């Protein structure tokens, strides 16, 4: 059996205010290397809450989380921040690029934060990621001067800069038209097939989800199908 890249075991999460309620109920599942998985479920069922936990940003939960076979739960904040930068790439509905910075600078930022390579190496890597996304010609443009679809590609290049093992996305195509949404889907598919990258994408788009390897369906804080 393959060992999962990411594994959640019996995750429970409660919100205490305004009244105590259980938002995640005994969530267990894993993702293998190169798997492209979507998470679907009605609004409010707990998808974003789960993604925050899986991405190590929320540590207030019960249960265990493993990334590359390492127990993530209970690690100190510095270690978590390191693990997050090194192993996880994020793509959101709104791209969160710095608009006054160039495309290249935006893509380089997470690698500068990790500070394991020289600026020259980081620039070389960033250009490589822009090439994978077919946008090397945009390198010198300011992020404010490119289209929505282009911004989302830059956001994907940025998510790839530290060569993560998994990309997580919260509705990364939610803000795109169907043409650009297709582009993003194809890029993700290529990354999983050609580079063995795992992808975990929360989406409301059934066409998108139906084309991924597997759909995890949530209902009222539980996983009802994997
Ligand atoms: N900080 C918080 N405090 C209390 N309740 C919260 C908090 N954040 C989210 N919730 C509630 O937890 C539930 C799950 O929210 P979550 O954002 O995870 O849902 P979702 O499935 O991602 O929804 P959507 O598809 O609309 O983005 C909802 O009922 C929401 O109102």
From TrEMBL:
<dbReference type="InterPro" id="IPR003593">
    <property type="entry name" value="AAA+_ATPase"/>
</dbReference>
<protein>
    <submittedName>
        <fullName>Lipoprotein-releasing system ATP-binding protein</fullName>
    </submittedName>
</protein>
<dbReference type="Pfam" id="PF00005">
    <property type="entry name" value="ABC_tran"/>
</dbReference>
<comment type="similarity">
    <text>Belongs to the ABC transporter superfamily. Macrolide exporter (TC 3.A.1.122) family.</text>
</comment>
<keyword id="KW-1278">Translocase</keyword>
<dbReference type="GO" id="GO:0005524">
    <property type="term" value="F:ATP binding"/>
</dbReference>
<keyword id="KW-0067">ATP-binding</keyword>
<keyword id="KW-0449">Lipoprotein</keyword>
<dbReference type="GO" id="GO:0022857">
    <property type="term" value="F:transmembrane transporter activity"/>
</dbReference>
<keyword id="KW-0813">Transport</keyword>
<dbReference type="InterPro" id="IPR017911">
    <property type="entry name" value="MacB-like_ATP-bd"/>
</dbReference>
<dbReference type="GO" id="GO:0098796">
    <property type="term" value="C:membrane protein complex"/>
</dbReference>
<dbReference type="InterPro" id="IPR027417">
    <property type="entry name" value="P-loop_NTPase"/>
</dbReference>
<dbReference type="GO" id="GO:0016887">
    <property type="term" value="F:ATP hydrolysis activity"/>
</dbReference>
<dbReference type="InterPro" id="IPR003439">
    <property type="entry name" value="ABC_transporter-like_ATP-bd"/>
</dbReference>
<keyword id="KW-0547">Nucleotide-binding</keyword>
<dbReference type="InterPro" id="IPR017871">
    <property type="entry name" value="ABC_transporter-like_CS"/>
</dbReference>
<feature type="domain" description="ABC transporter">
    <location>
        <begin position="6"/>
        <end position="226"/>
    </location>
</feature>
């Amino acid at each position: 059996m393959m060992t999962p890249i990411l594994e959640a075991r019996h995750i429970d999460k409660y919100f205490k205010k305004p009244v105590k309620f259980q938002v995640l109920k005994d969530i267990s599942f894993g993702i293998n290397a190169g798997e492209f998985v979507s998470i679907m479920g009605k609004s409010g069922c707990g998808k974003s809450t789960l993604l925050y936990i899986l991405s190590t940003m929320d540590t207030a939960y019960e249960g265990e989380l493993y990334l590359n076979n390492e127990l993530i739960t209970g690690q100190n904040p510095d270690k978590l921040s390191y693990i997050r930068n090194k192993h996880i790439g994020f793509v959101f509905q709104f791209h969160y690029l710095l608009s006054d910075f160039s495309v290249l600078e935006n893509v380089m930022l997470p690698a500068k934060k990790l500070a394991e390579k020289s600026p020259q190496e980081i620039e070389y890597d960033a250009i490589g990621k822009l090439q994978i996304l077919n946008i090397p010609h945009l390198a010198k443009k300011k992020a404010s001067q490119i289209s929505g679809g282009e911004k989302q590609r830059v956001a994907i290049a940025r998510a790839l800069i530290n060569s993560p093992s998994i990309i997580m996305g919260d509705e990364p195509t939610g803000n795109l038209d169907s043409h650009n949404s297709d582009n993003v889907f194809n890029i993700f598919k290529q990354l999983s097939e050609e580079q063995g990258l795992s992808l975990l994408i929360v989406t409301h788009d059934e066409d998108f989800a139906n084309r991924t390897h597997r759909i995890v369906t949530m209902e009222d804080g539980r996983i009802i199908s994997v």
